[in-house]
Design brief:
Layout (H helix, E strand, L loop, with lengths): L3 H10 L5 E3 L10 H13 L4 E4 L2 E4 L1 E3 L3 E3 L3 H12 L3 E3 L1 H7 L9 E6 L4 E5 L2 E7 L10 H13 L6 H10 L5 H8 L4 H15 L1
Parallel strand pairs: 7-9
Antiparallel strand pairs: 1-3, 2-3, 4-5, 6-7, 8-9
């Protein structure tokens, strides 16, 4: 009979490098304790790297730089998939995703309909903040991000340069979805979205 270590190792190495693993990915291969011990052993053997409690990486290797790590955004998205939760980047995370800033946030904050939590990955933090169902009623992926970015910038922070950038970003979104999502946004954001949609359709 093959050991838990064998089955855990086999499951990991069947995947492409760069994949994240969580202890519950190995349910059915052994007891919780034996799986934790196997993951710990594979970490010591440099097969896995532990990014945070209960989060392991099967790292891609670069001949010069060594282990290559996924972005904080990718980690957040994989955690959300594991938890079957929806997440929305907020604040500086939304600005960064839309490329309105090149500065990588040290604390990535996401609204979630799953469990709220904070996870530290290296020097960065991922915060999942519980939100009401209305926050997830928007339909457009881009317009949802734009709403969060505008909330971060504030009404006084939205100048002509930002509007021009947002106008270009929104060209990839269906105008009907923008109109729908604008109705769920604060009044001043709805006004900006509707203006940009009118410009887009000119």
């Amino acid at each position: 009979m093959k050991s838990v270590d064998y089955h855990v190792f086999n499951k990991i190495t069947k995947n492409k490098r760069g994949k994240l693993f969580f202890p519950n990915d190995f349910i059915g291969l052994g007891s919780d304790e034996s799986i934790r011990k196997s993951l710990s052993k594979l970490e010591k053997e440099n097969v896995l790297e532990r990014l945070a409690q209960g989060i392991y990486l099967y790292p891609k290797q670069h001949p010069v730089y060594g282990s290559l790590y996924p972005s904080t955004e990718e980690i957040a998205e994989q955690i959300a998939r594991r938890d079957h939760a929806h997440i929305i980047p907020t604040g500086s995370a939304a600005l960064h995703k839309l490329r309105l800033t090149t500065q990588i946030p040290m604390n990535m904050v996401y609204l979630t309909d799953g469990a709220p939590r904070k996870i530290k990955v290296g020097k960065q933090k991922i915060t999942f903040k519980a939100a009401v169902a209305k926050k997830f009623a928007t339909k457009g992926k881009i317009s949802t991000l734009v709403i969060q970015a505008l909330q971060e910038l504030g009404q006084k922070g939205v100048d002509d340069k930002i509007k021009k950038q947002l106008e270009a970003i929104l060209t990839t979104e269906d105008p009907k979805l923008i109109k729908h999502d604008a109705k769920l946004a604060p009044a001043w954001i709805a006004k900006v979205l509707n203006e940009l949609t009118e410009l887009k359709n000119d």
